């Protein structure tokens, strides 16, 4: 009798972790919307996206009588980073040493460079403004890019050279 109780206790303790059910995320219910409502909402979203387009904003700024707003694009975080970079550079040059750059800073710098190149490439992209002109725009303004599949190299090291018998 005692032996079976000990086995049951061991089995209960050996599992260790208790079951935690998955959290259910709330989802918007759009079952009451008809196809016409969905289409109207999609057209409105396209129209709003077109109004946010940089080309339309520049045209609005150029032809409006409102005073031109000049904003400094540098925020507190980037200003602090540039100040730290300048301090680091001055220290390295005055002490004639190179300081190791932590990995997270290198990655942040790379991300900053990538975002800069993305901003420069977006200059020539005008966006889809057919929602404003009344034209029939495509359903998907930004088509998704297909991922390139890498082929596995099935050759083994010794298969390149065959030994004649």
From TrEMBL:
Ranges of Basic residues composition bias in the record: 1-16, 143-155
Organism superkingdom: Eukaryota
Positions with biased composition (Basic and acidic residues): 68-86, 156-165
Segments passing through the bilayer: none
Species the sequence originates in: Amphilophus citrinellus (Midas cichlid)
Residue span of region Disordered: 1-30, 59-86, 129-165
Name listed for the protein in its UniProt record: Neuroguidin, EIF4E binding protein
């Amino acid at each position: 009798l005692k032996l079976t109780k000990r086995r049951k206790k061991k089995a209960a303790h050996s599992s260790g972790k208790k079951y935690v059910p998955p959290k259910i995320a709330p989802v918007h219910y759009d079952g009451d919307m008809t196809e016409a409502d969905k289409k109207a909402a999609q057209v409105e979203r396209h129209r709003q996206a077109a109004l946010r387009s940089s080309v339309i904003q520049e045209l609005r700024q150029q032809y409006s009588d409102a005073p031109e707003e000049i904003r400094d694009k540098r925020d507190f975080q980037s200003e602090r980073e540039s100040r730290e970079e300048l301090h680091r550079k001055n220290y390295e040059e005055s002490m004639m040493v190179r300081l190791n750059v932590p990995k997270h800073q290198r990655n942040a710098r790379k991300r900053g460079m990538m975002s800069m190149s993305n901003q420069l490439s977006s200059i020539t992209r005008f966006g889809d403004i057919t929602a404003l002109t009344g034209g029939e725009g495509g359903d998907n303004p930004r088509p998704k890019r297909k991922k390139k599949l890498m082929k596995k190299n099935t050759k083994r090291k010794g298969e390149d050279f065959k030994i004649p018998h």
